[in-house]
Amino acid sequence: MITTEEISINEKLDKVIPFIPEGDFYFTKGVEAFQKRKFDLALKWLKKAVELEPDEPLYQCQMSIIYTEIGAYHAANQMLTKVLAVNGDSYIDCYYLIANNYAHLGLLQDAKKYIETYLEKAPDGDFRVDAENLLTVLDISEDDEDDWAFEEEDELLVYQETAFFHLEREEWETALPLLEDMMAMFPEHVYAKHEYSFALFFAGNEQEALNLERKWLKKDRQSLFSHTNLAVFYHHRRQYKLRDRHIEALMKVFPIHEQQKLRIALVLARTGYYEEALLRFMSLPKSQLLGHISYYKWYSLVLYRVGQVDKAKLLWEEGCMKHPTLLEVRAPWI
Length: 334
Hints:
The protein is mainly alpha-helical. The chain folds into three domains: 20-148, Tetratricopeptide repeat domain (Serine Threonine Protein Phosphatase 5, Tetratricopeptide repeat, Alpha Horseshoe); 159-253, Serine Threonine Protein Phosphatase 5, Tetratricopeptide repeat; 273-334, no CATH class. 74% of the residues lie in helices and 0% in strands. The protein contains 18 helices and no strands. The protein has helices at residues 4-15, 23-35, 39-52, 57-69, 73-87, 93-105, 108-121, 128-143, 148-168, 172-185, 190-202, 206-219, 224-236, 240-251, 258-270, 274-282, 293-305, 309-322. The longest helix has 21 residues, at 148-168. The two termini are 47 Å apart.
């Protein structure tokens, strides 16, 4: 028998409207995080907004602005170009934003082309003054040949930082075209080609990545990059004898540079050499690696595997606070 009290509760429940977040909710949260300069968190919210409403160009434009702030200029321009392709001149400010990103990348001719297009289509636009100022800077830069070397160095740095951003988040498909550009523009830059093969392997082109590293190792038998990559590749393919040849070579290497030290520690962690990895991680200056998501992910796993569970959990929590991207994945030992 249903009581009067139960009827009253059911009537109240019938009046409850379930809260189902829409794109605007996530967009607002993203903007709030952006204003607090919590860029990883802002991207997380904006991605949810775009997933819910993929045809809303405003969300994509805001995402592009966040990408610009963190130096991921190529990713920003990919989004803005898509907005223009779908919406045409309804979002004319995209021309200015694209030009600004190209300017940061050092691609001055491309930047100038988009600035001129913006001023032609929106002579009284919101960014008119900024666009005119940027155009003046671009004209001066074109005439100043003495700064060419510095521009090239800056361009390389921008490419490297943008690629690093996507590699750390294991966004292989996004990183690959950036690394291809780096290899074409800076053929002597070792970082680009080895990170390219690494991204290629985990994007699904395992054999091609293996062939590249084998070829490069034949040219340079002491290549730290080739040994680290091949150790990881063979481990994932369960070719453990081949893996161990490269691990043995790495065990004898104690680099001076922190990035190379980290690279060896990460490889030892990825391939199950936890005790050895622990010693390498312990020798690293944490203060110089706060921007590396991989540091928190793999070091916490190593700590867990060697029985230092409390330390592992503390380090993982610290990593999640500094890099909200980690909140989207499980702890590495699960």
